[in-house]
Acetyl-coenzyme A synthetase (Streptomyces rubrolavendulae), 660 residues
Amino acid sequence: MGDVVSNESLANLLKEERRFAPPAELAAQANVTAAAYEQAASDRLGFWAEQARRLSWATEPTETLDWSNPPFAKWFADGKLNVAYNCVDRHVEAGLGDRVAIHFEGEPGDSRAITYAQLKDEVSRAAHALAELGVRKGDRVAVYMPMIPEAAVAMLACARIGAAHSVVFGGFSADAIAARVQDADAKVVITADGGYRRGKPSALKPAVDEALGRVEGVEHVLVVRRTGQDVAWTEGRDVWWHEIVERQSAEHTPEAFDAEHPLFILYTSGTTGKPKGILHTSGGYLTQAAYTHHAVFDLKPETDVYWCTADIGWVTGHSYIVYGPLANGATQVMYEGTPDTPHQGRFWEIVQKYGVTILYTAPTAIRTFMKWGDDIPAKFDLSSLRVLGSVGEPINPEAWVWYRENIGGGRCPIVDTWWQTETGAMMISPLPGVTATKPGSAQRPLPGISATVVDDEAREVPDGGGGYLVLTEPWPSMLRTIWGDDQRFVDTYWSRFEGVYFAGDGAKKDDDGDIWLLGRVDDVMLVSGHNISTTEVESALVSHPKVAEAAVVGAADETTGQAIVAFVILRGHAAAEAEGDTDALVAALRDHVGATLGPIAKPKRVLPVAELPKTRSGKIMRRLLRDVAENRELGDVTTLTDSSVMSLIQAKLPAAPSED
Ligand code: 6R9
């Protein structure tokens, strides 16, 4: 079929027949039922106006959406609120001051429980401290912190005084800090001496010092003492958090800001080019973060113990550690360190210790746990869990089923939540009390959200077809622009298809109309005229019992245009068995993909590797694997978690590719 050109935008190869009904007990008590879809469908703006009333407004909005100047939206524009008041004070005023807001678990094993009353005092003091350092409404503050409660306090203190925060992930370099501080013109940087990572203190302040040697405009650096490491000190500029914050009053009157007042800027690393400063504002963002956290996790704040394992430096940490859960008065766990310190059961030990009921993590972590083996979670009591979430990448059906069985004990619904830094909050996801879930599918747009799949000509694809994911109506937590670059905002998201938001992801609709995310469109492979998604081939590989993780890329090929090259990580036992001789296994894996998806998707080469290149938020970087597969010099590796991974992979490349 060499040169047959398919008229599909994206082939639909994978069939998944497994279905899991929502647990009856959960469905009977669910926060949100199927009626929400109907209600939102009949009156979308009325639906969101009602969700906005979950918040406490100083001035209730009378307008819902102003879309008179697309794509620049205004939500609840005549309303006024204080985001920090909504996340903290109002719970204390409601008599819930003694409820634990954050169970902090440090990597070395230290722990602290912080109640809503304590959080209110700490946020108030930090707000006064920022004001004393000269931070005013409308200013920007950069935050470069480990995963400690002060990171959340810092963000809320900014929100409280109307300064936008720009959190820079604590694993990023001085270059990244400098670029972000400069782009946002930050006045203050909040950091720590360091944090604990992989069993030892890991310094943070030196990177801030280095960055500030290169950019101007930062007046003060506020430093939390976490590790007690020695730090260089710039007199007049640097201030210890404990010295300035502790002496402030715990009484602070929150000012109400316009719903469209900037709340934060978060830079998406992006695969190429200058990072984009994604701007989020207050009222619409908080409405959707709070609503989705309530609906998708079925949060019962009186009894649930919620844990999101993301870092505060990513949007998941913003929306589902800080703003959504705290707006809902949740009790949550916050963990500082890595999943394998001091042992590979650390996450399950934490679930057991705090009685975690709702767990939100990423496919990359789930696949790592699969690789480490079923026996590790089996040693812990995970019976408190009742809802499991996934975010960050498409979750392979096999990883989904593993998560359900080995972590969820076969009883917990899994919510696979699709969204982006740009969308601010969840957009496509099952509802745990409503949806019969399908392993690997994010399924339906949430109530009040309009998403679909279109072909190259912007025509909606029929059920069973594949193409591009688009969002067809504005939503409350949508990005408002790219900081300082409205034109880039329009060009990047609103120009590929007229009048709709293009997310950059490939997707398909199955025969029931449910949506399956198929990876970034930049990664789609073109094999003999067929557009084949990375996700489907990777999922077919992961469905083989010997494979824990897979990444596939299209490499230039004389006969087929591109040929599929697969990099696989074997599961613990399989890696040991295959030691030395992988030829038989490679042949078996190629056949397995061929049998699962059809001959067109059979990889030309399969390379077992020990690690895959990932971004710091755990997403596979296929671009670098493409460089390897095409024997090119490696592109930019600075966003890699571990740059030695690439030399290991290159060293493993056999001279002669396996052929049919
Ligand atoms: C929240 C977050 C956004 C990109 C997005 C997509 C991928 C996220 C996903 C998913 C399939 C899911 N993605 N969740 N793909 N299924 N449930 O991750 O934001 O870091 O901006 O990344 O991540 O490709 O476009 P962000």
Observations:
- The two ends are 16 Å apart (CA to CA).
- The chain has two domains: 7-494, 524-652.
